[in-house]
Design brief:
CATH superfamily of the largest domain: tm_1862 like domain
CATH topology of the largest domain: pyruvate-formate lyase- activating enzyme
Helix content: 40-55%
CATH architecture of the largest domain: Alpha-Beta Horseshoe
Radius of gyration: 21 Å
Largest sheet: 9 strands, mixed
Bound molecules: iron/sulfur cluster
CATH class of the largest domain: Alpha Beta
Distance between the termini: 27 Å
Structural class: alpha/beta
Number of strands: 17
Shape: globular
Strand content: 15-25%
Length: 367
Amino acid sequence: MFNRLYIHIPFCQSKCAYCAFYSEVDASEELIDAFFCRLEEEFRVNSANCAELDSIFIGGGTPNSLSAANLAKLFNLISANFAISNNAEISIECNPESINSEKAVIIANFANRVSIGVQSFNCEFRKILSRKGTVQSIFDGIEMIKKAGVVNVGCDLIYAIPSQSVDDWCKELSQAVKLGVKHISAYSLTYEEGTRLYRQYSEQQNSEQLAELEAKMWQKSPKILKKYGLKRYEVSNYALPGFECRHNLEIWYGDTYLGCGPAAASFDGSKRYTNPNDIKSWLNSTPPELDIISPEQRAAEILIMGLRTSQGWNSAKFAERTGYSIDHWQKKLDQFANDDLLLYSKTDLKLTEQGLLLWDTIAESIL
Ligand code: SF4
């Protein structure tokens, strides 16, 4: 039985230059209506496989690009179809420029965690990313959400934007914490094939210099945020104590989840289902793509995802969640420990700072 629900809202006001996520721009009312009909059906069919929900994550796309009436409709549909635990964590991603006071109140009546897509407070960098909205709209959006009663407000930031210096990045972090956010997700800019940014900038980038700059910014981040009480709890995530994202943490530690909406993925413990990343196919009930994962592969994936966290794994917890002993990977883990990438004892293992920085390489080697 699932107790974690992810919902993908596939609509955006415009396409950002770097974005490879699936979303529809300028969706018609008919398309949005059709989306809700199909979503309701997906909720109805799947809710029988759900226990009381402990966390809900509404992402996209831009969930709050929906009108106030449609946001209320979405929340009513969720409440009508699923039992939700009293202390469930309910997260929603919002873009600042699409927040208004009416939507803020509707959001605050349902969600208790709002993640604001800031990406940058600098006009020049916002232009490079082609983010909609002004810097003032970020301040106003955060203010409206807080005023409506949401305490747990966080933001997403992007670093290593072309021409951004380490000092520029430190200013972004300081600006975010000064606004009182409790959580920051910070990802380096990626040049995804097919995006505008890829066409414009990928050839100008020297990959070695870029990797060096990314590493410097990543290493600097916890030092800046520590002054304000936020700690790195995962490779790319920082929070005040008690404000870590429960939904994501449990999934990194191998929990199952149900995903609804186009492009959403579900994981039932042995199979991953991915809905078509095209709204027309999803509306036509094209079945999800199925990926059957062997128990060993699943355990390796869970091992590596748990190692994204600063806390890492307790061996007994890992064995309980996967049925495998950590020692199954002992040879590789010894090698990482010898290279000072991993701290490894009989009961616990976690990556060192250098190990977290090289997580991709470690993951590749274990998988
Ligand atoms: S708002 Fe988010 S999902 Fe939409 S295009 Fe921009 S980055 Fe992509």
